[in-house]
Design goal:
Layout (H helix, E strand, L loop, with lengths): L2 H10 L16 H22 L4 H26 L3 H23 L4 H32 L22 H14 L7 E7 L2 E8 L2 H12 L6 E8 L4
Parallel strand pairs: 2-3
Antiparallel strand pairs: 1-2
Length: 234
């Protein structure tokens, strides 16, 4: 399978967990559990998408899926318990994930080229982990004794106005799975600031339209971005 198809599948298995968008408050147990289930579902879908590949391309795809799952779990913990340690854990998870994928990609090389590839991958991992550790130390050193709210501080959304992206993702997934006409589709759901992105593979244009319709009907969804692909056209 060519690199274009590999890129398409990689995009389809991406998870939308952004450290910069983490809520500065703990999640409820139900929301945390729902997010965990969402991560598990994304990983299952991602590994299934890798089955259409072969040889080292499949190994790279699986490594990417595992890495995204590991990073998503770390980001979930950081969102549930914000702090320097959990943010540091996210940095380490990303470094480990990138290294695992890089090692698999090096398997396409041989001899000195492969050795150089592995050496470079290890150097990048070591530097990334060192940067994560340095950022944590810097954050600890720069913390003020106590921050006082000012009149210019942005107004926070009330609990009734804010819906966590992971909760929206879980609700959209449940709605899609609950739609009989979409049960056989391979649809992935990602959310960032209320904007839902649908990726994966479907049987027909009607399935695409139905999935978008179902997602838009979920409370908290601001808009829906369709990146789904018709089976047989990839």
């Amino acid at each position: 399978m060519n690199s274009i198809n590999i890129t398409v599948i990689a995009a389809a298995i991406a998870l939308a967990f952004s450290t910069g968008a983490m809520a500065a408050q703990s999640m409820t147990k139900d929301d945390y559990k729902a997010a965990q289930n969402s991560i598990a579902a994304d990983y299952k879908s991602a590994t299934a998408a890798c089955n259409s590949l072969s040889a080292n391309a499949k190994d790279v795809c699986i490594a990417e899926a595992k890495g995204k799952e590991k990073v998503a779990k770390a980001e979930l913990d950081a969102r549930n318990a914000p702090g320097d340690k959990t943010r540091y854990a996210v940095g380490i998870a990303k470094a480990d994930a990138d290294y695992a994928v890089a090692k698999e990609k090096c398997d396409d090389k041989a001899g000195n080229d492969k050795n150089a590839c592995l050496k470079d991958a290890k150097a990048v991992e070591t530097r990334a982990k060192a940067d994560a550790k340095a950022q944590m130390k810097t954050a600890d050193a720069s913390k003020p004794a106590k921050e006082k709210p000012t009149s210019s501080a942005p107004k926070k959304e009330s609990p009734g106005e804010y819906i966590d992206d992971s909760v929206i993702t879980s609700k959209v997934k449940a709605a899609v799975l609950g739609e009989a006409s979409l049960k056989s589709a391979e649809i992935n759901v990602e959310t960032y600031k209320g904007i839902v992105q649908l990726t994966g593979f479907v049987r027909s244009r009607a399935d695409i339209n139905k999935a978008v319709e179902v997602a838009r009907a979920v409370k908290g969804v601001k808009s829906v971005k369709n990146d789904m692909i018709l089976k047989g056209t990839q």
